[in-house]
């Protein structure tokens, strides 16, 4: 079939909106409603992510892994996906390792998996696509159709916190009331993933801080404060750091920043590494940094991707947050553009939290 | 009471064997049989471990945390500790945090604990000491009296593997047979803790490697090979690294080495940081190192100390290994010296794995 | 102080609305808004719950453990509880066991705890009460003030599912997609706790069934079907049982019913026992029932109470459900009565799901 | 190939020692050294275990699932199984469910697995058999060749305690020292599995009791007391029950006994159901029994079988126990008979703990 698609030729620089032939014959036919763009898309387009590659035998890769789509035709299926349903397609598709075999390709043991729009599989930035029902997660709440494109970034957060739940059992992590109210979380960064981590951290009950190495605009500060998160510019006033942190989530991918905050962790602290920035400058660490981690039983946790369960739970959070925080979530989508505006892949929009492409 | 003791005055350089007054009046009276010395003792003596300090109101700290002792007098007690028993005293004593309150001072949340011979509490390198029964772990197997001084270093290993057991549940870590036989562990270093980690790794079933940046002597190689561990000098032939590692244990405390091996980890790999070396030179790491950790869901786990349960399980392992591996364990004790030979705190002995002081 | 209160004299039959002197001098003063009544209250009043007892030195016990209250005066406190706040008071108060010490009196090891309105502590069915801030959980969402009285019953559900999360890790419990969509849950009973378990089960993604030994009214069926739960009368058509169940929650407390459903469990099935009915008739089970449990690795899990963390998460669920399911949750409160209507303790109201007492 | 084998024709009564044709062509050829017999074998022979069946298309089933074998010919294999090795063959062979796919057929989700000598697969009671290397677990310690036939029954214990490790995390189960020394375990029964559970319980550190409804012989009492286990006849003196139990393991399969001991459990207690007795008489339980389980957060855990990891760990225990407890373990094998003595399937031997058949 012929589709209008946003394409690139990894590992080369460049992005095009063009019509292209794709060869798909799968039981569910879909049209994207919104597709979001993130650092990974920009990294592929700029040729800086060497792991990206086109489908086998092809040169072009259709971009797009953050997506809300509408079903336009559906063969009968056990999962009850029907014409007219809004769905979020799952990005990663399983290989044959022990984790993939039990539906947890996010924990793939051998790298033998594919990611739509990234590694060996066409993405969702196109006028139409087809898929299997098991790769689609239904959006039950009609009121979140305009924000459900955030499901895919949020599923990463849900997986990371699932890891946290397991790992934090290695000692008593909770406070003397068996809860998180007296525990302190720091989210490093103020982009869309940082926001979603911050909201999830507040749901746990953590006293939650967001930080960056520059001040934030008034409007962003208001958004941050809505769920009782406190922002501080760590290059200025670090007084909030004096009680340390129990959980840190890094979305910067910057080694110097990460090690700065590791040294702020309390005993049994957990550091989630999430943000990647392959071009971040080198930083140094020494024996006393290693000591610090050991003497305090600190854990550092790399976390990537998420599986069906995390998409499902992300959708539940979006429903609640949409209600609880008013327009906070929809305000995270700072611009909605047309597919032919490929300029957004090359330049971050001013004040951008999340830019999405509308396909209707 | 007056005791002959090995003392130091932290944070100053120096060590003395002298008689000294101590003020103890506790229900169990003990005499050390053997006390082991390790890098921590040498670090305190050299003035390079700033966290060491003498008991409140004192200038002198009696050294010694690795110990096998014999009970010479015992008040009646619930734990059934009796005159004549061999026991291993527990190093760390609880504070008031949620972890200490449940008997897990190894996971102390706020640092409000003491360590015999290290932080604020006199150690076991003296002609006599007194203690509470709950701080003593009985050695049931009379045949391991000569090696039970290794219980304390081994309890660290048991705690680290307990952490591993919890953390490795975050995905399927085991192989396709539900076991560890096809999983690969690397132990970085060839000292006494490295040996104990290596033996524990073999008990799990891991294909186990030990490595260092220099070749090993014939006699040490024979010891390493006894439990089917493979040694390689990673500055020479790295062919065994081509399949990566699933578990790494660092006993070097050296940042450059640690990051070298993090880059050898397979997906879902777990890196245990155990060895500390506050004077290790700084090393650099960059954004691609962070990427590596994230994309593979790698976990880095600082692990310190252990609690009663780990001493108990360490004793069980010593019993089995003593039987299973013949003189391998007793050969780990490479020299036994008298208490007045304080020179051993200043100079590593040639061919040393573990040096112990005999007190009888 | 003098309060108007609903009292009983355990273990005697009887209930009164009367003014009574209580001796409290705690930092937060509160007025109940709503208090719910449940089977435990009725059991105490009927003299059939031998574990109930009045505060030390008293004959009368003020009833009431399900409560939404408003703060009328508050000393300054770390938890930020302020005058005007809506709060839910925690029922169980810790003793000195290892679980109580870490804020988990719901898992009390030795029974040395108290429960407001049940065991040794006055409850919340009175015109005014006082408490410590750490026993109060703030209701952040003003829109749920009219349903937040359901927090206490729902916290039991959150604790039971926390247990489920831990226990279900003993094997792969999830389906081939790593989620619960193909897993089947049965909720035995159709009362208020059954409803809350059903909603939580749907949040997990379970295909969820509710059952009873009689048909349900049209209006209740509509409520059950709203979150896609299927009701069946197990004395009539059992066709939905042919694929077995993976999770069962019993709210009946009836042995014969429980064992009937244990025999419907699939391999690795988990049965949560929650409902108690001390007067339920005896039933028989034989060796083949035991075989059934063993050969399928089935787990049976008694679950009682919940702690602060479960109250907090219950409030989040109420916020989402209130939005997601419209008036379903508020319709669970089938009657709101005055405090002097003590008749409700003696007779279940027609069509009752939850009866609450309004205090303003 | 033609083999001398012990056969039965399930579901019919009967057992024969005869020569029989089997059709196997697998890479490893083996001869049994010892095969053990247990209640399951006797149940099959007596026709009382309806789940037993012969291999597809056959009428006869070769019995035998407890086995120590010697490799007589081996194709090259990754697991390093070589001619002359002693090995224990794994009983259960995986199907295609999520648990079987990750090597944990002991947790098979759908029953689509086979068990040698029991369900659809010929067992090991024959002069020769063939197998795949992944079904064989190597015995590294030559000194346990005469007792390694106990590996298979012991692997059940290791799996049950693995379950215990997971499930007991739902609250703080350990004592105030973070260990099991003040926790109390009761093993119901005094047969071979009861012994193995008792030894494992002692390894955890539990104060361990064994019980039965009759007194034991002097020689058996001496065996029980060797690892500091206390026996009592619960029909006589129950004074040891006054502090309750934290762990119970039932090997009787008898409902009345099981419920008797459930009522002795402390809060957070865990009851492992292991023994099956399909013909055990029915017993009654009532609402107050259910209450008891719920109010104390008690868990009842059916546990069957074990996987490779449990065979491996069983072998380690046998090595240690053999050394630690002298002839205790070898004395558990109370008689060694010839294959033609099929009478042992019909009559329990006097004083029997474990009867084995020698094949050489």
Short description:
The structure is a homotetramer of 360-residue chains. With 360 residues, chain A is α/β, with parallel strands linked by helices.
First and last CA, distance of chain A: 19 Å
Strand content of chain A: 25-35%
**Count of DSSP E strands of chain A?**
20
Shape of chain A: globular
CATH fold description of the largest domain in chain A = Quinone Oxidoreductase, Chain A, domain 1
Taking all residues together, what is the mean pLDDT of chain A?
96
- Quick one: biggest sheet of chain A? 7 strands, mixed
CATH superfamily of the largest domain in chain A: Medium-chain alcohol dehydrogenases, catalytic domain
Radius of gyration of chain A: 20 Å
What oligomerization state is this entry in?
Answer: homotetramer
Fraction of residues of chain A in helices?
10-25%
Number of domains of chain A: 2
Structural class of chain A: alpha/beta
Succession of helices and strands of chain A = EEEHEEEEHEEEEHEHEHEEHEEHEHHEE
Our count of helices of chain A gives 9
Q: What is the CATH C level class of the largest domain in chain A, in words?
A: Alpha Beta
Second CATH tier, the architecture of the largest domain in chain A = Alpha-Beta Complex
Biggest interface, which chains?
A: C-D, 59 and 60 residues
Q: Spans of chain A with pLDDT under 50 lasting ≥5 residues?
A: none
